[in-house]
Automatic annotation (TrEMBL):
Protein's recorded name: Thioredoxin reductase
Record note on quaternary structure: Homodimer.
Domain of life: Bacteria
Gene Ontology MF term list: thioredoxin-disulfide reductase (NADPH) activity
GO biological process: removal of superoxide radicals
Organism ancestry: Bacteria, Bacillati, Bacillota, Clostridia, Lachnospirales
Entry keyword annotation includes Oxidoreductase: yes
Pfam families assigned: Pyr_redox_2 (PF07992)
Details of cofactor binding: Binds 1 FAD per subunit.
Listed InterPro entries: FAD/NAD-bd_sf, FAD/NAD-binding_dom, Ferredoxin-NADP_redctase_2, Pyr_nucl-diS_OxRdtase_2_AS, Thioredox_Rdtase
Keyword Ubl conjugation among UniProt keywords: no
Amino acid sequence: MSEIYDVIILGGGPAGLSAGLYAGRSRLSTLIIEKGQDGGQIAITDEIENYPGQMVDGESGPELIARMTAQSVKFGAERVSDTIKEVSLEGEVKVLKGEKEEYKGKNVIIATGAHPRPIGCKGEREYLGKGVSYCATCDANFFEDLEVFVVGGGDSAVEEAMYLTKFARKVTVIHRRNELRAAKSIQEKAFANPKLHFMWDSVVEELYGDDILQGMAVKNVKTGETRKIDADPEDGMFGVFGFIGMIPNTKVFEGILHMDERGYIKTDEDMHTNIPGVYAAGDVRVKSLRQVVTASADGAIAAVQVERSLSDYF
């Protein structure tokens, strides 16, 4: 492509689409590059209930994302499907080399998101959104009065497990070691919670069921014994939440942008990175809460910052 865009947005999730909407409405020449389907993690969520202004009865992730996509297109954002393999971000014109094309822009908004570190068991992918989740804040309501299992032993896993006890009938933490890695203060609260239980020295080997998750095989790493755990017949299903870490989609930016020890991009409150004209928005950046609403806000802020950098009015 020979055109030099005002802004190139990497990622078609809530942050990227929000940025596309705001940039398009500001009459900026805008290109959104998404390697797969729009939506990111939200695209695999069956129902969303906590996005402000949506239908009270909730809607699916794909439905919400479809409306966001339509909005960005309505206001002129161009779209391509490609995977960026190499970037040159210094200077007034940024160059992004993809598998199909080379793209140039005066500004770049990185909204490539992050993906959950998988549990790594058989059947995990098949039951995503059908019993398997990686976000208690997003999906806890769907497991009210059901039994839930949490895989992991760090701060996030134990904190999310305690949050789930507000909804689930029983929550069991499955951890491959015989003690938690979470901070002692968190552990004290967890062990004092009567609805929270622990399965030590164990890993999930397989998930199974019909259309929904109904059982799993768990292996004791010390004895080698494997046992099956089936959902209560009256429940018909249970939930498995994986909290063994997130992986930011930032590999192509390593050594170029400032990141924390986990690979998340560091920004200020206006989404600026360490390189002028390069912004990061949504789950890909260092932040305390990763939700659709915060990702959308990040995208809007980044696009407005781009507009201001190009305008004589600010």
